[in-house]
Amino acid sequence: MMHSGSARPRIAILVPCYNEGVTIGKVVRDFKAALPAAAVHVYDNNSRDDSIAAAIEAGALVRSVACQGKGNVVRRLFADVEADIYVLVDGDDTYDAASAPAMIEALRSSGADTVVGVRRPLDSKLAWRPGHAFGNRMLTGFLGVLFGRPCRDILSGYRVFTRRFVKSFPVLSAGFEIETELTVHALELRMAVAEVETPYGERPEGSVSKLNTIRDGVRILATIIRLFSAERPLVFYGVTAAVLLALALVLALPIVVTYTQTGLVPRFPTAILATGIALLSALSFFSGLILDTVTRGRRELKMLAYLGTGSRPGD
Of 170, 217, 296, 302, most Cβ neighbours within 10 A? Predict the structure, then answer.
């Protein structure tokens, strides 16, 4: 929905910030230069350096979020800020502010509800920490297989959204898994997603990454599996049921053969185990059926919230 009395859509730059005193001022200035009409909102997450002072000096609108974690900050940003187009970017000065107008134009011209800034490292050895490139490809590919739609960079922190995306998105993640959740939300509501390549640079000297390759990679993988089980329960629990049933049959077949030949059940504990696994298989399958009905209702509510928020900018 367009802001009343203005032909131009309102644009908001959303910057989660935690100990980015070295870079946040430059990020704010760069985005104000790239999008002069946009309001830059920096939400600080208990920084122990001069991030707040640097952001205010650069001209940002600054607020504080007490609950630690990027997901918690994004939740507050999405809830508090009113705009027609939202640009979400990290405060570490690794993303290219000059790409923002092209990403917004892609949003408006393609009919998409979100545009992902696909990172193109200026120097792969410096911009990507060891293991990050492989981990990103693995997690991106895994999510694409599970949800049936290919993605190029699910972990990008540089994205543009319509108002109806932002206001219909129930943020559940507390940390860096938020990017994965944003992607799954778009895929599950079958939104149009556009991608624009954008330069990705290394952190300036003195700026320290908050990511832990292994820990955060495991958390993101767990988030993908959790979201898949929540959004596709019939498939998730159906596959689990099939695996359990196959295991039960493998255990039971020799017992059945022996019983038909001799009328005896010599391995009674194995028979009990096979029966228990078969019951678990049935329980898993029917759980998937029930949860699938619940998920459909939840998805309908999210779709109604999405459709009820208003039209796209320019529509």
Answer: 217
Containing structural domain, residue 110: 11-230
Last residue of a domain, one of 230, 245, 270: 230
**For the chain, how many residues are written?**
315
- Is the pTM higher than 0.85? The answer reads no
- Same domain, yes or no: 64 and 165: yes
Q: Would you state the pLDDT for residue 315?
A: 58
309 located within any domain: no
What rounded mean pLDDT belongs to the chain? 86
CB atoms within 10 A of CB 275: 13
- Structural domains of the chain, count: 2
Residues 10 and 314: their CA atoms lie apart, in Å, by 11
